[in-house]
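Researcher: Following up on the earlier apo prediction. This time include the ligand. It's pyridoxal-5'-phosphate, with the SMILES given after the sequence.
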Amino acid sequence: MATDKTPPAHAPMSQFPVESGELVVGGLPLTRLAARVGTTPFYAYDRSLLSRRVAELRAILPPAVKLHYAMKANPMPALVAHMVRLVDGIDVASGGELKGALDAGADPREISFAGPGKRENELVQAVAAGIVVNVESFREIRLLAAISQRLGLPARVAVRVNPDFELKASGMKMGGGPKQFGIDAEAVPQALAEIGRNGLAFEGFHLFAGSQNLKAAAIVEAQQKSYELALRLAGDAPAPVRFLNLGGGFGIPYFPGEGRLDLAPIGANLAALVERAQTELPQAELVIELGRYLVGEAGVYVTRVLDRKVSRGQVFLVCDGGLNHHLSASGNFGQVIRKNYPVAIGNKMDATEKEIASVVGPLCTPLDLLADRMELARAEPGDLVVIFQSGAYGASASPQAFLGHPPVTEILV
Ligand SMILES: *Cc1c(COP(=O)(O)O)cnc(C)c1O
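Model: Understood. Below is the ligand-bound prediction.
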């Protein structure tokens, strides 16, 4: 019997329309958008797609579940300001992000601060701002006790728990086993006692097991286990649990063969947990925190072809930006095996003349590879290469100073 040898394809990128052969981002055809920006390369984030994504998610989540944006995924100020109006809270992971969230107009009561290695000054800023600190060590509890004394303001704290299980099938595991994140579940009762002894304002628990997960069953299992663990730990808490952050980890398809996350079972499971919480944790709000899932598919990276080279039969499209702006598309941001992001020639979307080409950046290193031998419209200098799925972990997660090229422009359109 013949076997199907067709290599797996990328999930279709249908979020941006195509008009007269051009990709349309934020209502503008790509060449006009590039003219409006005035320079390449650039990142463009589409407001309407950000709004639509949150609306779609809210339609599936039970209304009682609060939705937070983890701004680590994309801290561009205008984008954060847009997200502040759409979501119920912002999760920050540094004093710099805290400033960004406050500047963007986020309500301090709905900001939480996670991350290992918080500096004393960042904790002072957090207490003074009145946000919730997700404490990740006994040192943080001690420092917060002293800061609360000094400011005459009890720190609002949640305990970030390093659970005794992992989020299966995750792109990045951030809980379970030995981890630098959170307080091991076994030590949480002692942490809760210290929080009570020091008169800190206990608010709840934070569990974040991992990132970039495309398997609904794995997310459902992690959320159930997180809920059970928090329920057990709540027995030792110095005050009722006011919120329970069950994490997130919702993934988006990047690579050939990856499908979309099925939200329906996640919504159903959260509805069941909300129901249980009404009697088991009656004062608690359930929260999920998402970064990539909210913003990743709304953004593109656009870089212009500077040169077209053929080396021993292989076509290279040499562009004006690369790894320096988009480390993750180059495969150097935590990927084990390099795979291609979805890529297109954005001003030749309907082209019938195709070829196999590699897209590279201007850096003098073989790591600067944005697409490795992909089928693309035949491109010439001046054409615009688009990297899809670029709204998260793009500009801010890339080594922009490496090799001294200009920094990338970002627009919200
Ligand atoms: C990184 C991170 C997130 C966001 O993860 P995504 O995969 O972008 O959704 C959320 N919470 C915490 C604590 C994180 O460290």
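Model: The CA atoms of residues 47 and 413 lie 6 Å apart.
Researcher: Noted. I'll compare it with the apo version next.
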